[in-house]
Amino acid sequence: MPVRRKDRKGNRYWYGRITLPSGKSVEKRCESKREAQEWEVLARSRVETFEETDTVSLALLAEKHLDHVKTRLSEKSYDEKRRVFRRLCQEIPPATEVAKVTYARVETVLDKISREKSGHRANKYRVHLVRAYNWGMKALGLPSPNPWQIEKYKEEKNPRYVPSEADFWKVYAVAGEEDQRMLLTYLHTAGRMREIFNLSWDDVDFESQRLQLWTNKRKGGRECDWIPMTDELAQALRVQRLVTGFQNYVYVNPDTGTCYKWHQKFMPRLCIRAGVKEFGFHAIRHLSASILDQAGIPLAAIQAILRHKSSHTTARYLHTLSGTKVALNEAFRRSTGIDGVGAKKKAQEGGASRA
């Protein structure tokens, strides 16, 4: 049964604990009681069946692989991988030897997930399982080739809703001043939600008029990219610095005094007030790309701004980034003008009249 106690530094942690047949106790520090309980289940199944053999159980593969990736993945990705193994061990006894978990057995599990949830969910589980077995071949000596290479499932993808520029500026118009600066930051950087939430003043370089965004969506872990600031964004951030300049983060949650972790009701509330179809932060990223595309910005420049890295675009990305500040300024300057009257100005006037 899990126990909770302090470590040498006085921090309290949950510990999973099992007793071996020899009488020796084995324990592992965990982040939560639930994680400790799951570890105990996996550890007991391993001890009961394979303690004195060289075979690898499903429980052992799950435990070892999760230990391996814990320091390499974001918390969100790690939790997703845990859910995959938890579901697999619900369908197949965790004490089962991995060599006996055949293609057909894994396919049966994924078929069930596809029926219950979706083909998209089954494909995500498939990716985690294939990667786990591939790792097991290198680290635990599992037999090759990988028998879990299940054929991909059909996915019905609904196109993401991308708001019009006019709708964005309507939402902008009903937001508070600090929220307007945050929305402008999303639009002019095409940043992901957490990249802007985690933006600190150390990441903002006014002298070179650029900022760096940190992402976990890379195989190598957390990395940053420098993004040119438009003139309008630089001006907005100078104003924001008067508000939060003595704090670490650019945008601070007033309830916690630190950066935002979630802002779930923020965009829906603004969309309702503005009278437009609901959209979120990631839709603004798509809108930024759409604005750049409509402005005739080269694809290589858009890839540099969105930071969609791959082996064949890295060289072009480094070459193109130096010219993207001009492209950004030109594109977003044109995006505010419709028939000689700015969409931004129209939206703000409409917002003021509703108020």
Structural features, described:
52% of the residues lie in helices and 9% in strands. The protein is mainly α and 355 residues long. It folds into two domains: 3-139, DNA polymerase, domain 1; 165-354, Orthogonal Bundle (hpI Integrase, Chain A). The strands form two sheets. It has a three-stranded antiparallel β-sheet with strand order 1-2-3. The radius of gyration is 25 Å and the shape is elongated. It starts with a strand and ends with a helix. Residues 49-53 and 311-320 have low confidence and may be disordered.
List the helices and strands and how they pair.
Blueprint: E1 3-6, E2 12-19, E3 25-30, H1 33-50, H2 58-69, H3 75-91, H4 103-116, H5 119-139, H6 165-174, H7 177-189, H8 193-197, E4 204-205, E5 210-215, E6 223-228, H9 231-244, H10 266-274, H11 281-294, H12 299-306, H13 314-320, H14 324-335, H15 343-354
Antiparallel strand pairs: 1-2, 2-3, 4-5, 5-6
Helix pairs in contact: 1-2, 2-3, 4-5, 6-10, 6-15, 7-9, 7-11, 12-13
